[in-house]
Design a protein that fits this description.
- There is one protein chain.
- 75% of the residues lie in helices and 0% in strands.
Amino acid sequence: MHMGESPARDAEFTEYVTARALWLRKVAYLLCGDWHAADDLVQATVTKLYTNWHRAGRADNVDGYARRTLVNTFLAERRAPLARLTVLLGSHDDVAEREDDVDAALDLRAALAALPPRQRATVVLRYFCDLSVEEAARTLGCSTGNVKSQTARGIDTLRRLLQPRPVA
């Protein structure tokens, strides 16, 4: 065992990840727009959480720590060349969960996927995770003004993309 590792630490970590896995996966999906990429993102996040559990487990807000790790991992991957290629090619074999209004859900998912990564992150943090501007800024490591402008741009783009189009 490495220093700081113990059966109690591992049990605490396992309990946390087991309880929050579905939540992490939903947030990851909203960021990625792809279930396979979301699973990869959650796995990378869980690995980072395990490595830093000595800090994360003692955090005042473990969910906040996990969410920040997830978002930072997502944004870092989007800066990598392979991620840009994956986004351009897309994945067409997703198995989406059933929604009451499948068409609206698919439209929203497509619109979210069209947003640049930082705008998508701010919209997901503000409206899905229900974070305040200040909490989103802390999660993203940026100013509240940046969160406000990225969110406003993201919402404007979503409104434009989701406007009903006249049938010809």
